[in-house]
Specification:
Helix content: 25-40%
Radius of gyration: 20 Å
Number of helices: 11
Order of helices and strands: EEHEEEHEHEHEHEHHEEHEEEHHEH
Number of strands: 15
Strand content: 15-25%
Distance between the termini: 41 Å
Structural class: alpha/beta
Length: 333
């Protein structure tokens, strides 16, 4: 099991987010069409809802209305579906890192603690009829959560990540009776990508090469996560015809973590797009006077472009659309 550090800064205090990933096993994209049809048939015959998850099929007697989400992606997806979560893990972190249009956390959502160690007592007190979790992060307390309510467990990193996100979004929508809304929202990703592609083509930037990075500080050292084509964000930008100029070795999340010297491997004609917190930005801070950084082609050519710090690169459909919006804004198209 690989532990991936995701650096955050909330409320002016540096914090670390730990993600656990187990590669590409245990996902839901590989489920057959026959399984999906069977789920629909079960619902028609019995009134029950059958949902495909990383832990197998979960059956609900009726659409859930009081849902606790312990991973920001699924909180975002509930909000996109018009469902206000009863509880969410780390409201402050969610609000800091996910600023996509329409993704704001509604009022009166109970904070049930952090994503790695949520409060079982707070979750139980909410009396939810559904709990949604990340399969890797929440394995340790899966049984305890299942004692409180039915649990939908999803794996984000199953390849291809964009299709995995769409599939899991659809399964979550099924659980809350919002399948039509999910189809509507998912379609908007393709529409927005086609619009960005048309604007890039019109500006003479069609098929342009880019590299996408997240900068942060860990243990006092400035680091960069470079996104490979295995990660969801480049797959979203690929819908707009853009080409990834980073070919590094991906980890389970599709990222390559490097120092400033590693940026010399970015293809020379690529535009460098990056996300970093306002108070933890190595690109304008630690690297500002670094000779390697200043010598990079995209720096010398003023092609290092920031995206909104709240552009969440590991999110749901609203975050996917935000990536497209911010990219268009950065490229001035």
């Amino acid at each position: 099991m690989q532990r991936i550090l995701r650096a955050l800064a909330t409320g002016g205090t540096a914090a670390a987010l730990i993600l656990t990933a187990t590669g590409c096993g245990g996902g839901t994209v590989g489920d057959t069409a026959g399984d999906k049809k069977t789920g629909g048939a079960d619902k028609a015959a019995t009134g029950k809802i059958t949902v495909d998850t990383a832990q197998g099929k979960v059956t609900l007697d009726k659409p859930a209305t009081k849902v606790v989400a312990l991973e920001w992606t699924y909180t975002e997806e509930l909000v996109a579906l018009g469902v206000t979560p009863a509880g969410n893990a780390d409201n402050q972190g969610y609000g800091t890192w996910i600023t996509a249009k329409g993704a704001a956390l509604p009022d009166k959502v109970t904070d049930v603690g952090n994503r790695n160690e949520p409060s079982l007592e707070k979750i139980r007190a909410l009396q939810p009829d559904l709990i949604v979790i990340d399969n890797d992060r929440s394995k340790a307390n899966l049984k305890q959560l299942q004692d409180i309510a039915p649990v939908l467990s999803f794996t984000y990193t199953t390849k291809p990540q964009l299709e995995t996100m769409k599939k899991n979004f659809g399964e979550l929508a099924k659980a809350v009776g919002k399948e039509d809304k999910a189809a509507e929202v998912t379609k908007q990703i393709d529409t927005k990508a086609a619009d960005l592609k048309a604007r890039l083509d019109k500006a003479g930037k069609g098929g342009m090469k880019y590299a996408l990075a997240q900068g942060f500080t860990a243990n006092g050292t400035a680091s960069i996560r470079m996104l490979t084509d295995d990660a969801i964000a480049p797959q979203v930008l690929g819908l707009a015809g853009m080409k990834n100029g980073w070919k590094g070795q991906p980890d389970a999340w599709g990222m390559t973590t490097v120092g400033v010297e590693g940026l010399t491997q970015v293809e020379k004609d690529a535009t460098f797009l990056y996300v970093a917190a306002d108070n933890d930005n190595p690109f304008t801070g630690a690297f500002k006077d670094n000779a390697v950084w200043k010598g990079l082609p995209f720096v010398k050519n003023d092609k290092a472009l920031p995206l909104d710090p709240g552009t969440w690169l590991f999110g749901g459909p609203l975050s996917a659309m935000h990536i497209l919006d911010e990219t268009g804004k950065a490229l001035k198209v």
